[in-house]
Design a protein that fits this description.
Elements: H1 13-20, H2 24-60, H3 68-82, H4 87-99, H5 109-112, H6 120-127, H7 129-137, H8 147-152, H9 173-188, H10 199-209, H11 216-228, H12 240-247
Helix pairs in contact: 1-2, 3-4, 3-9, 3-11, 9-10, 11-12
Length: 248
Amino acid sequence: MSNARGAGQAGTPEADSKFSGGDADTSRMRWRRRELVETINELEQCLLDTIETLNAAVEARDPYTAGHSQRLRRVALAVGTALDFSKDRLDMLATAALFHDIGKIGMPDSILTKHEPLTREEQALMREHVTRGAEIVAKFPPFRGAIPAIRHHHERWDGLGYPDRLAGDDIPLEAAIIGLGEAWDAMTSARPYATALSLSDAMAGVRAGRGKQLSPVVVDAFWEVAKRSPGDVLPSDEPTAAIAKIAV
């Protein structure tokens, strides 16, 4: 049997018109709209794959941060869900979490993999990754909604963060969520210059940061997730019962 489409084969504009009884022009428009949506979805996936490849290249340069963005994404989505984010908002939050450090793509290895504390000059250069990341993502229209979270995920509730020293509710909520996820992953992961904290100490660190470094709303949502569904925030090598006891 031939695989070529005939004039009245199902799935074509002609078939839609014939079997639905609708106007041929309307059927053609519906068909073209469907094809356009599929093409746009394919292009967005290609863009997503491109940025994910760049992001993987950043993490591959520093073995201590391998998997960081995926872990942060998991925590961010759990907190966003607890805050009743819509599906579209959760999708953009996930994008921001995955690409929050994309601006490090141009950072020299001497800074990214340095085991000693950074000098003031190196700190200033490292801090540029948030604005660089926002500029990179701005080149991809489907993901521009993630720019505020990427640019501001190092702001602090007390106004002592960067790059714009935003404070309190002026910090985009998505950025505040990623900021908490960043702090949590830093505390629970081993780094060249620091060992991972115990779960008890890490949870105490989150609690201590409430209203100082971290948004109270975000900390409270994180705490609820830790009690209700500890596996959503727990480092993968820890038993869920461990954090459940601490978060009570």
